[in-house]
Structures are given as structure tokens and as C-alpha cells.
Write a structure and sequence with these properties.
alpha/beta, Lyase, Ornithine Decarboxylase, Chain A, domain 1, TIM Barrel, nine-stranded mixed sheet, eight-stranded parallel beta barrel, 12 helices, globular, binds pyridoxal-5'-phosphate
């Protein structure tokens, strides 16, 4: 559900015509809908309202400060995976006691930074990391609150690059080892165990994998009680899918309905870490058609947004709906929609049926709010896109378009060597 709709044959972002925003800010342009973001966050809050819970927005899905500030304002927390994301979350005003820190490669500096800022907990992904966190905490004369990220060996039936809970994945601690590591954690003086964590993957479109994974985690939870390990937080991760094409993923309410019966009898707060399902459908990427080309065997629409702006089609073969900003009921063609980057993998869509479009017109790449801008780069020395947030009839630039100067601002020509 989102607020990008056609009115009088023009695509609107809430109450603003996309063409108007393009005129003011140019392309490629990311446009986000405030109403959509709020709706999704509230859907999670309401879904889990009958149990104690914290919604920790997964910052990596879209880390723009304006979006994080909106999260702060609504009183939700953050799931972070780096020191940089912690910096952003704190800057935006997200409360440290609602921040959880995951990731297999936390550095000593990142651990120290997080400890100094008193985050809620580290989601620890290995035995070695447990020792490292203990050591840093000892140096700072603090106790580090931790959960162990347990890998329940569940296939979430999603793209292999975004499945994270299989035995062969780099993430988490194998469930058979978990009890041993909890005992180890208990013996470390500067570690305080407060939770258990799992995250099995992304773009999950049915609840059965969640139920299966949570059941496994909860049997561990029950075992831990016998060893006098007190679990205050059960962190079930993120991963709920969204509709890109014809998927019918569960809603937060469906997820809650499937999981709450399992956890209701347990004491402890639930943490949920949604990313994609909050921002995915709340954003679009608008691009200008530069050229059309027919090679005899194929049609191409060449646009001004490339894989540096939105890498999902290239990286995962992902499908994004692509809509004309001003449709005109013209004859349809089957075409590839490609960017200007010098890579054959630079495409937004393959063999897509779309009405015949002319250069100078604009296309909207839908559902681009998650893992869109946050995965963008400067490849081919392309300045990154601008980002705009729309709220009803109002809108604001939330990230300036980069300039050529921005591209080189950290580079140095070493005069003494050259
Ligand atoms: C990426 C990630 C999430 C968010 O996943 P979505 O599929 O975007 O909801 C949550 N938790 C952890 C640990 C992650 O790495």
C-alpha cells in the first residue's frame, strides 16, 4: 500500500505531481511518501501492541537522516550494522536504549563507540566477537549488553543473496552451538546477556519460515532458563517482503498473529527489525528517457538512472514495476530499460512491456525506497541522485544532488610523488 497514484493521467506522489518535482529537482530523483512511511510504522506498532515490543527500523534499508528523524519522532528504535549507521541514528535523535547492533564484522572502534553511547544491545555473531566485546567493555569499565544471533538453519525461500539463516550462511551462531556460547558469555565478566536474536533473510513472503525459526529459538530460550540465563529480549529480526510485482506478502498484522501465540507465555520484550517493509513501497526513483534504440533483435529505452542509482535489478535480478509519469495509452512494445553505465549488467528491466515512450519523458521505478539510494554509488563518476520527501501538498529536499566537486572532494594529488 502506498500513495503514488495516477490522477488525471499524471503520476502523483501524495498530492504533488511527480512532473512538478522533476521540473524543480531534475533526475534521477528519489521521491518518498511521508504518509506511506507513517502508515507502515503504525501498522507494525498496532500489530504488536498486545505484547511488550520495540520496533527497530533497519537503517541499512534507507539511512537518510530525514527518514531516521521521522522514526525518532514516532518513538521507534533502530537496527544498525555499522558505526556510521549508529552516528546517523543518534544524529536523527533515535534513543540509544532502542538501538540494537548486528553484523559479523564489528570493529573495536565501532564496539567502543556503541558502548560509550549505551545502546540497548549487541547482536553477537561469533565466539570471537563475544571475546572482543568483553575486552572492549572491560577497558571502558562497562558491561556490554548482548544477545546472541542464532542461526536456526531455516530456508526463507528468497533470493540466495538475501537468505541469512541457512547453516551455510556467514551470519549468526549455529543453533547447536548456541547453548555452549551462552554459557561462555555468562562466564565473561563484562558481558551481560539480555537477549536472543535471529534474522533469517529478506523479502520473505509467507509466515511459515518465521514460525519455524521462532519455534527453534524458543526451545533454546526454554533451555536457557534451566541454566539460569535470563532473556529479557526476543529479537525476531526483519525480513517481511513487499509487493514488487505480484507477491502477496503477509502484513505486519499477519506476522504478529502467527508469532504472538508462540511468545505470549514467555516473559520478555519482542524486538522486530523491519527495513524493506517500512520504506520499500514508500519510495520511487524517477528517471528521464534519454534515447530509444532498436537493434533489430531488441528494443532499448536508455534512461538517466543506472545501476549506480538502483542496483537491485543488476545484483539480484529484482523486478521493479516501471510506470510512465504521464501515460498516454499508446501502442505497447517489449523493451529493455537500461542505464548509461558501461556494464552489460546495467539495466532496470529486461523484456518489459511498456507503452511507446519518447525521449524527454519520465519513468517512475516503483518500490525503490528500500536498498535503493542506500546501495547507490558513484560508479562511472556519476553524482548521486537527489532525494525528496513529500507530505500531502508539501515537499522538501532531503538530500541535495551531488556535484562534480563532491565527487573529488576527498581526493588528493600527491605533488611530492607525481
Ligand atoms: C537487513 C536486516 C534487517 C532488515 O531486513 P528487511 O528485509 O529489510 O526487513 C533486519 N535485521 C538485520 C539483522 C538485518 O541485517
Amino acid at each position: 500500500m502506498h500513495f503514488f497514484t495516477y490522477k488525471n493521467n499524471k503520476l502523483y506522489a501524495e498530492d504533488i505531481a511527480v512532473s512538478e518535482l522533476v521540473r524543480e529537482f531534475g533526475t534521477p530523483l528519489y521521491i518518498y511518501s511521508y504518509a506511506t512511511l507513517i502508515r507502515h510504522i503504525r501498522a507494525y506498532e498496532e500489530a504488536f501492541c498486545e505484547v511488550p515490543h520495540i520496533i527497530c527500523y533497519a537503517v541499512k534499508a534507507n539511512s537518510n537522516l530525514a527518514i531516521l528523524s521521522l522514526c525518532a519522532e514516532l518513538g521507534i528504535g533502530a537496527d544498525i550494522v555499522s558505526g556510521g549507521e549508529l552516528f546517523r541514528a543518534l544524529k536523527a535523535g533515535i534513543k540509544p536504549f532502542r538501538i540494537v547492533f548486528a553484523g559479523v564484522g564489528k570493529t573495536e572502534q565501532e564496539i567502543e563507540y556503541a558502548l560509550k553511547n549505551n545502546i540497548l544491545m549487541f547482536n553477537v555473531e561469533s565466539e570471537a566477537e563475544l571475546y572482543k566485546i568483553n575486552e572492549v567493555a572491560k577497558k571502558l569499565k562497562k558491561h556490554a549488553c548482548v544477545a546472541l544471533r542464532v542461526n536456526p538453519d531455516i530456508d526463507p525461500k528468497t533470493h540466495k543473496y538475501i537468505a541469512t539463516g541457512l547453516r551455510t550462511s556467514k551470519f549468526g551462531i549455529p543453533i547447536e552451538k548456541a547453548l555452549e556460547y551462552y554459557k561462555l558469555a555468562k562466564s565473561l565478566k563484562n558481558i551481560k546477556i539480555i537477549g536472543i536474536h535471529k534474522h533469517i533473510g529478506s523479502q520473505i513472503t509467507d509466515t511459515s519460515a518465521y514460525v519455524e525459526a521462532l519455534s527453534k529459538i524458543l526451545s533454546l530460550y526454554d533451555k536457557l532458563a534451566k541454566y539460569d540465563v535470563d532473556i529479557e529480549y526476543i529479537d525476531i529480526g526483519g525480513g517481511l517482503g513487499i509487493t514488487y510485482k505480484d507477491e502477496e506478502p503477509p502484513l505486519p498484522k499477519d506476522l504478529a498473529n502467527a508469532l504472538i501465540p508462540l511468545i505470549k507465555s514467555k516473559k520478555g520484550k519482542i524486538i522486530v527489525e523491519p527495513g524493506r517493509s517500512i520504506v520499500g513501497n514508500a519510495g520511487i526513483l524517477v528517471t528521464k528517457v534519454l534515447y530509444t534504440k532498436e537493434t533489430g533483435s531488441k528494443n532499448f529505452i536508455i534512461v538517466d538512472a543506472g545501476m549506480n542509482d538502483l542496483i537491485r535489478p543488476s545484483l539480484y535480478g529484482s523486478y521493479h514495476e516501471i510506470l510512465p509519469v504521464t501515460p498516454d495509452k499508446r501502442q505497447k512494445i517489449v523493451t529493455d530499460i537500461v542505464g548509461p553505465i558501461c556494464e552489460s549488467g546495467d539495466f532496470l528491466a529486461k523484456d518489459r512491456e511498456i507503452e511507446k515512450i519518447t525521449p524527454g519523458e519520465h519513468l517512475a521505478v516503483m518500490s525503490a525506497g528500500a536498498y535503493g539510494f542506500s546501495m547507490s554509488s558513484n560508479y562511472n563518476s556519476r553524482p548521486r541522485a537527489a532525494e525528496v520527501l513529500v507530505k500531502g501538498e508539501n515537499y522538501a529536499l532531503i538530500r541535495k544532488r551531488e556535484t562534480y566537486k563532491d565527487l573529488i572532494k576527498n581526493e588528493i594529488i600527491p605533488e611530492d610523488i607525481l
